[in-house]
Amino acid sequence: MKTLLTAGLLLFSAVAFCQQTGTEITPTQAPSKMHAEYRGATHTEVKQSQSVTISKRPGQPQQTHDAAYYNQEIAKVDAHISAIDAKIAHVNSIPSEKALAEQNGWFQQMDQIKLELNQKRATLIQKRDNL
């Protein structure tokens, strides 16, 4: 039993050591596009390539951060802003809901969210244009 536990501990240590000693590539000059591979909880390998690829979790497909990805994310932000505008118009059309929303500061919260979304949209556009 002790031998089995010792063998298991050694195997576990070897696997953990192999995951920590991956080769990392450090670019000598600032490349225009990078490729990142997710390797475990804290290890990322960086390679120069045509676009940035990020795997969010093991088992999930990788997402390539190219112009199509950024256009898709911008469309999501635009849809969110449109939904907020529609909700504000709906609340404004009903006097009792409008009074309650003003009392609770809901309009200010929506303005803050729209401001953050517009900043996110600008960042996404900038990243897309820098590809």
Short key terms for the protein model shown above:
two-stranded antiparallel ribbon, 2 domains, elongated, 131 residues, single chain, alpha+beta
Give a nutshell description of this structure.
The protein has 131 residues and is α+β, with helices and mostly antiparallel strands.
What does this entry look like structurally?
With 131 residues, the protein is α+β, with helices and mostly antiparallel strands. It folds into 2 domains: 24-64, no CATH class; 66-131. The protein has 4 helices and 4 strands. The protein has helices at 2-20, 67-93, 95-104, 106-129, and strands at 34-39, 43-48, 52-54, 63-65. It has a two-stranded antiparallel sheet. A hairpin with an 8-residue loop joins strand 3 and strand 4.
Number of DSSP helical runs: 4
Shape: elongated
Distance between the termini: 57 Å
Beta-strand content: 5-15%
- In angstroms, what is the radius of gyration? 24 Å
Strand order of the largest sheet: 1-2
Task: Extract low-pLDDT stretches.
Answer: 21-35, 40-44
Q: Sheet bearing the most strands, described?
A: 2 strands, antiparallel
H and E string: HEEEEHHH
Please identify the oligomeric state: single chain
DSSP summary, beta strand count = 4
Relative helix content = 55-70%
Mean pLDDT over all positions: 76
What number of domains? 2
Q: Would you tell me the structural class of the helices and strands? A: alpha+beta
